[in-house]
Amino acid sequence: MANGRLAQSRIGVLGTGAVGRCLAAGFRSRGHDVMIGSRDPAKPELREWLSGEGAGIEAGTFAEAAEHGELLVLAVLGEAAEEAITAAGPDNFSGKVVIDTMNPLDFSGGFPPKLSISGEDSLGERVQRTLPDAKVVKAFNTIGNPYFVDPAFTGGEPTMLIAGDDEGAKATVRDLLADFGWSDTVDIGGIEGSRELEAICIAWVKIGGARGAWDHGFKLLVG
Amino acid sequence: MANGRLAQSRIGVLGTGAVGRCLAAGFRSRGHDVMIGSRDPAKPELREWLSGEGAGIEAGTFAEAAEHGELLVLAVLGEAAEEAITAAGPDNFSGKVVIDTMNPLDFSGGFPPKLSISGEDSLGERVQRTLPDAKVVKAFNTIGNPYFVDPAFTGGEPTMLIAGDDEGAKATVRDLLADFGWSDTVDIGGIEGSRELEAICIAWVKIGGARGAWDHGFKLLVG
What we know:
- Chain A is α/β, with parallel strands linked by helices.
- Chain A has helices spanning 18-29, 44-50, 62-68, 81-88, 123-130, 167-179, 194-211; strands at residues 10-14, 33-38, 58-61, 71-74, 97-100, 105-106, 114-115, 135-138, 160-164, 185-187, 216-222.
- Chain A contains seven helices and eleven strands.
- The radius of gyration of chain A is 16 Å and the shape is globular.
- The mean pLDDT of chain A is 96.
- In chain A, α3 (62-68) packs across α4 (81-88).
- In chain A, 33% of the residues lie in helices and 21% in strands.
- The longest helix of chain A has 18 residues, at 194-211.
- An eight-stranded mixed beta sheet of chain A has the order 3-2-1-4-5-8-9-10, with helices on both faces. In chain A, strands 6-7 form a two-stranded antiparallel ribbon.
- Chain A binds chain B through residues 112, 114-115, 118-120, 153-158, 161, 186-189, 192-193, 195-197, 199-200, 202-203, 206-207, 209-211, 215-223, and chain B through 112, 114-115, 118-120, 153-158, 161, 186-189, 192-193, 195-197, 199-200, 202-203, 206-207, 209-211, 215-223.
């Protein structure tokens, strides 16, 4: 436990891409007991990461990671969310705080992507409907993964926008964000706020495409 | 002409609510020749404003203001956009830069509002489709009207996000934003970026509701 703010917890991270790895390493750096879940936990590139940057993190199947975690993180591609949840076993999410970091990006028309779920729906809402007994909190989806832990830009610190239906779950996520170095977390309301947060991801991606660089993030100015 | 950056232009602002008045006064303060358009240009509250804060601004019908302006601003409520354009006469928009400041807010379910146009569409795109010969630029829709001119927050200056299909029109809008005191304007791409910008408005409104205050705005941090 790095700074005493949060008790050591068992964390399950589903997804071994850059987002999953960054968050798994972030939780591990704060002293938590982390298992990262993969469709294929024996794959060589994962094993290599676990013996380097991912040292101290266990790997397992989606179901093993979901069972392991008291708090779970969904970090697969948006299009793989449903399959990952099915593989993990919906019962393993029951009663738990579930951080949804995903964006439903549709690259079928090339760059920039558009949202594959839009209108009066969002991926965050779908995840919550699929897992009615879980406490889903959308977070980490409007910033690049190099900034997940100890975020800093030349012009200041960014704002993490979150949304979710359960106030207690959002308080937990706020605490772990503080533990990760986020001084400013702003709650935009219920899980339907995922509509806005996923749209903000598209804006972030378009700006990155125009800049040809990805070292940017949003800050909420106040007063 | 306040600072020599932009030649004096004829500006037509459609809409006499807070957004239209702030922008009309802003253009007037920079030396432009401004007409504000209303469904009822004789209404007492407009006449009162014209003799005070709005001094030096003319008022006319939507059609008169649209005919007057070399550059036009759409600043009616989103739900009134179609009617205002029809009243103004679509031909009066032809070939002109048209700044769309509007948000398609649906308050029928109470607060917070949701978008009345969403999914793979937006009000900005509808305006551009309705006015194919106009050069529509979405701007001013993600910030409160007190910040339209000389924007400043305790934590720094906000970022104006814009979108539109015509590069020349966006350059014009960038110049007038600079003239208004915006040091940071970020172009997120074609007019379909209105989907993101209108969603960002919803996030801005939700944050305002939670804060019980409206002195907030977004800044893009870079590097």
